[in-house]
């Protein structure tokens, strides 16, 4: 098959890419609410429990996680009501074979009040996780330390790190897939400038993003301050962690990949250069050419023997060249697979596959999944640039890529099914969790991608093969155009230099002409003066016509002028025969433009090839969105982990299903209408009877009574409520209700009505999460 594409239809390319990026942005924006689920290690329990009130101060605070985490001495901080740190600042590792637990010791004699526990860790799959909760000793205090609002891995640093992760995936796909396309599908593409740029840009993109991610690890897993990228101490700590080691290993493998790319577009490209591309033309002076012709005629008698020897030598050279190409292809293929596998392993050893269920199986499967993605999508990108910015592409090359793409899809389906079972676990988790919904979106996009690929195969089957000679000629023309483009600047510089020399020569010629004109004028003036003096000394004739004044001098001067000034018919000068570099460069550009226009007309007149280019471009656009969704998936808590968190916490989530404490300020608008209501609901579960405690205080914090309070619960999602709660007054500013049954878990709306006089009252609404 041959499809041309020296100049693409840029408007169509840009339109499809803009649509792809817009869809990717919409997906990211729509999934913004799922960002808090990005923590892959979840807090499953704590002692003391969140919102609990202890009779006496505990000896330590312990945290239990769903999977392995990395923590330091500053990972758990306990703050008193004034915000002062009171723990011993020493991390205690209380983990066992099946339980991941860490703690921090507390001093004896802590005063009564509300204490805040803020914690931060890095999960086993390299993602940071953080949180905070409160507990009280004796009774809740009026004040407590502020809870951190920004989660670990969020803010500007988190956004930059997420972008770098996506670009790293894209760079790997372009590098590995583009190189595989050249080696396995179309070796002649090693000579195509657009394919070379694609692979080299992929290597540069992956290298740059790896360095950026390495520098961002310190603020990403720590303070969140972008200035900490220059913290060398933090960088040293990152290097000894598993994610840091994976990033350093990736950089070392990229050094080997640079050597691979140099050989691919160096020796491998020269070995597949079309015949005649580097044959020198016969040049020389006319005498030398004639002499060579005479020598050739003298050797004509031995031409038959020479032809036989040349045929044998040509056959030997052809065999040697074929063997060299085979060795280069095998070496690059073997080395490329090793390097690509190593690069893919740097993700597998630090992402989802390295933790959780069956890591020994999951890591090799993840490597195969990444390699299949790179072979399919990266090869697709190489095919796109070949079709639009390269010489004609053979149908055999497209068929080879089609077979590789089909094999990649088979591998993706097999590995994807295993990964889905490992990360999701149950069917209902596909719709009940953010990870499951993202996975469904990815599957739908892959189905669309496969459908477009099927259309591309149909277009490929309609194409007719062209003779190899035409393909080689087109590749040779493309190589010549590339050489002309590379040397265009040098030609322009030479043209400028030649123009300067020409102007200098013209100026010198004008100076010589001016000097000669001056000398000729002086000689004419002298001759005229001598003739006039002689005429005065000689007496005039008395009869006969008077001679014409100045006839002799003028005649003499006109006769001698050709000998005194340069003649115009001496023939053209040597400078007139010199070629004009600027004119030659202009002619070369015009010829290239004519060839480009002719090729474009032929391309646009072929509906089959036009259809193939459009379908392949549509594949690439959908592939961009697939890559975005894949990146978001790697930063989302797996559904199986979320289910494990609920199971280990008795069917309650880490946030819901625990005692809930709400602080509700109010203002009825009348005299003494301002105050604060503090509501505590325990155990915060839909499976058991709940108890509600309510306390009213004035703006100074003193407990006060009000004529009436009312409490009700409503759940809009299930259309339940309002469910009124009967409260009883137990003391000054104190109310209590027991036996509160909330039928379903989820987010409920608590409505609090406070009346401070006969006519002044207000209703405040707060959300509260109830566990199952």
UniProtKB/TrEMBL annotation:
It comes from the Bacteria. Residues 517-553, 581-596 have a biased composition (Low complexity). GO terms for molecular function: copper ion binding. Residues 1-41 form the signal peptide. GO terms for biological process: copper ion transport; response to copper ion. It comes from Streptomyces glebosus. Residues 396-474 form the Copper resistance protein D domain. GO terms for cellular component: periplasmic space; plasma membrane. The keyword Phosphoprotein does not apply. Pfam families: CopC, CopD. Keywords: Cell membrane, Copper, Membrane, Metal-binding, Signal, Transmembrane, Transmembrane helix. Residues 289-304, 477-503 have a biased composition (Basic and acidic residues). The lineage of its organism: Bacteria, Bacillati, Actinomycetota, Actinomycetes, Kitasatosporales. The keyword Oxidoreductase does not apply. Residues 275-320, 477-606, 641-672 are annotated as: Disordered. This is Transport integral membrane protein. The chain crosses the membrane at residues 166-186, 198-216, 251-269, 328-350, 370-389, 401-421, 433-455, 616-636. It is a multi-pass membrane protein. Its main location: membrane. Residues 40-137 form the CopC domain. It is found in: Cell membrane.
């Amino acid at each position: 098959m041959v499809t041309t594409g020296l100049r693409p239809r840029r408007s169509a390319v840009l339109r499809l890419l803009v649509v792809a990026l817009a869809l990717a942005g919409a997906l990211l924006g729509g999934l913004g609410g799922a960002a808090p689920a990005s923590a892959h290690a979840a807090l499953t329990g704590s002692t003391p429990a969140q919102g609990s009130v202890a009779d006496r101060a505990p000896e330590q605070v312990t945290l239990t996680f769903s999977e392995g985490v990395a923590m330091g001495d500053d990972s758990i901080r306990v703050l008193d009501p004034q915000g002062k740190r009171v723990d011993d600042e020493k991390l205690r590792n209380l983990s066992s074979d099946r339980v991941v637990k860490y703690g921090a010791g507390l001093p004896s004699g802590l005063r009564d009040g509300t204490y805040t526990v803020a914690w931060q860790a890095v999960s086993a799959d390299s993602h940071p996780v953080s949180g905070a909760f409160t507990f009280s000793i004796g009774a809740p205090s009026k004040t407590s330390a502020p809870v951190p609002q920004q989660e670990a891995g969020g803010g500007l640093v988190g956004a930059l790190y997420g972008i770098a992760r996506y670009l790293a995936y894209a760079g790997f796909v372009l590098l590995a897939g583009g190189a595989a396309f050249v080696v396995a599908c179309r070796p002649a593409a090693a000579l195509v400038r657009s394919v070379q740029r694609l692979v080299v840009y992929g290597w540069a993109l992956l290298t740059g993003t790896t360095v950026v991610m390495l520098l961002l690890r310190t603020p990403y897993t720590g303070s969140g301050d972008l200035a900490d990228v220059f913290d060398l101490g933090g960088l040293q700590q990152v290097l000894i962690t598993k994610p840091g080691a994976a990033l350093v290993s990736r950089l070392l493998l990229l050094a080997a990949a640079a050597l691979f790319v140099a050989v691919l577009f160096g020796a491998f490209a020269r070995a597949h250069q079309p015949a005649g591309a580097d044959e020198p033309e016969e040049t020389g002076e006319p005498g030398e050419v004639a002499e060579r012709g005479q020598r050739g005629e003298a050797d004509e008698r031995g031409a038959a023997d020479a032809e036989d020897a040349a045929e044998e030598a040509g056959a030997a050279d052809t065999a040697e060249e074929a063997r060299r190409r085979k060795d280069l292809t095998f070496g690059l293929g073997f080395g490329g697979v090793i390097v690509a596998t190593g690069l893919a392993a740097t993700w597998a050893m630090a992402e989802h596959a390295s933790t959780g269920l069956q890591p020994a199986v999951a890591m090799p499967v993840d490597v195969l999944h990444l390699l299949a993605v790179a072979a399919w999508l990266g090869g697709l990108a190489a095919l796109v640039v070949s079709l639009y910015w390269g010489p004609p592409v053979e149908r055999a090359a497209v068929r080879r890529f089609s077979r590789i793409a089909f094999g990649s899809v088979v591998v993706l389906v097999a590995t994807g099914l295993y990964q889905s079972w490992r990360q999701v676990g149950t069917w209902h988790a596909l719709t009940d969790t953010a990870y499951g919904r993202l996975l469904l979106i990815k599957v739908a996009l892959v189905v669309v991608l496969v459908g477009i690929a099927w259309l591309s195969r149909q277009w490929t089957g309609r194409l007719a093969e062209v003779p190899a000679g035409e393909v080689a000629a087109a590749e040779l023309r493309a190589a010549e155009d590339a050489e002309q483009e590379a040397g265009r600047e040098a030609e322009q510089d030479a043209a400028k230099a030649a123009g300067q020399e020409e102007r200098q020569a013209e100026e010198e010629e004008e100076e010589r002409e001016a000097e000669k004109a001056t000398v000729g004028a002086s000689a004419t003036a002298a001759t005229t003066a001598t003739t006039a003096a002689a005429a005065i000394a000689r007496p005039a004739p008395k009869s006969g016509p008077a001679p014409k004044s100045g006839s002799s001098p003028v005649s003499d001067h006109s006769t001698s002028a050709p000998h005194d000034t340069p003649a115009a018919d001496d023939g053209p000068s040597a400078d007139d025969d010199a070629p004009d570099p600027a004119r030659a460069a202009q002619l070369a550009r015009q010829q290239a433009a004519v060839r480009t226009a002719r090729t474009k007309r032929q391309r646009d007149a072929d509906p089959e090839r036009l259809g193939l280019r459009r379908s392949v471009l549509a594949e690439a656009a959908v592939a961009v969105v697939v890559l975005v969704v894949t990146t978001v998936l790697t930063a989302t808590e797996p559904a199986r982990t979320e289910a494990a968190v609920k199971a280990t916490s008795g069917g309650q989530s880490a946030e819901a299903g625990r005692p809930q404490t709400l602080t509700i300020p109010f203002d009825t608008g009348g005299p003494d209408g301002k105050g604060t209501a503090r509501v505590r609901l325990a155990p915060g579960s839909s499976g058991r009877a709940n108890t509600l405690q309510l306390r009213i205080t004035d703006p100074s914090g003193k407990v006060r009574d009000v004529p009436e309070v009312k409490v009700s619960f409503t759940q809009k999602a299930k259309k339940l409520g309002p469910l009124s709660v009967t409260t009883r007054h137990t003391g000054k500013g104190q109310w209590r209700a027991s036996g509160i049954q909330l039928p379903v878990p989820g987010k409920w709306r608590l409505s609090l009505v406070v009346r401070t006089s006969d006519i002044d009252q207000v209703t405040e609404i707060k959300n509260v999460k109830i566990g199952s």
